[in-house]
Structure formats: C-alpha cells, structure tokens
Specification:
disordered N terminus, Immunoglobulin-like, alpha+beta
C-alpha cells in the first residue's frame, strides 16, 4: 500500500505542469481492484488500481491503473507502473487473456496506450476478460512479466465512473 501511494503521487505529479499536493482517499475495494478519489490542484481525479497476481521478477511497486480526470476530459486512461525504468529500445506490451498484444508508450517507469480508440476497446475487453499480462524490459535488460486479475474490475470501474462522471 505504501508503494502504491508513492507510485501514484509520482505518477500524478509527473503528468501535471505545476507542483501540487495529491490528496487521495480510498472509496471502495472489489476483489483485486481498489477505487480511489483524489484532488490535484483543486480538481477531482478518480482511479482504480490493482497489484499483480504474479510478477517476475517479484516487485512490490508494480500497478495497473485506470484513471479519470473529468476537468481534463480524460476518461478511462489505462496506465502501467512497473517500479523500474523501461529499457529505451524495448516496447512494453499489454495482452488480455490470450488475445492480441498491444504496444505501449513508455516514459521512465510508466506506460500508456498510444491510441484512445484502442484504449476504449481494451477497457471493454478488460470488462469481459480474466487477466491482463504486461511484458517489458528494464534498463538493466531484465525481462519483466506481470499478470493482473480482472476479478472486480467492472465493479471498480463503475464505482470510479460514479465518483468522477
């Protein structure tokens, strides 16, 4: 939990222009997924987050998140935090169950979906799916593999949407 708070604080501080304080509050928990509400520059942000069921190698600070920033018109943005910096020449990938893998855009230890249209489709597949698999490589050349459960994802997504319409 401590690592999640640190990772999320870093994530949100990196993605905004000005320095600010992120005030987070947990609002719900559904199986593998937690729902949070936060304030950044007096603007409401909501997100859901899960830790991997399996990580290779084992890391405590890897997370799969989906966030909403209504004032920025950002809805259901998928984000991956690995806890280690990505290798510059390796493209991280995300796969749902045994479906096709999608390439991610990465900066430092965070990665996002490159295309909003694909992202909406992925959210729908996550609603129907069982697991998400992330594969990437660290700057040291270590292959990182994380598997996340989607149990509770739909309820968490709905709770986040209600909190940040």
């Amino acid at each position: 939990m401590k690592y999640l708070l640190i990772a999320l604080s870093l994530f949100f501080s990196v993605t905004c222009m000005a320095k600010n304080t992120l005030n987070m509050k947990p609002i719900a928990h559904y199986s593998s997924w937690r729902v949070y509400e936060a304030t950044e520059n007096n603007q409401k942000i909501c997100f859901i987050s899960s830790s991997p069921l399996y990580s290779s190698p084992k890391r405590e600070d890897a997370y799969l998140m989906v966030y909403r920033r209504p004032t920025e018109k950002e809805y259901n943005v998928i984000t991956v935090l690995t806890g280690v910096k990505f290798h510059q020449k390796h493209v991280p990938t995300l796969g749902i169950d045994n479906q096709k893998v999608v390439s991610l855009l990465s900066v430092d230890n965070a990665a996002w979906i490159k295309d909003g249209k694909i992202e909406k489709n992925l959210i729908n597949k996550m609603i129907e799916g069982n697991v998400v698999r992330i594969v990437t490589k660290s700057t040291k050349g270590t292959v990182l593999k994380d598997t996340y459960s989607l149990k509770g994802f739909t309820k968490a997504l709905n709770a986040m949407t209600q909190a940040c319409p």
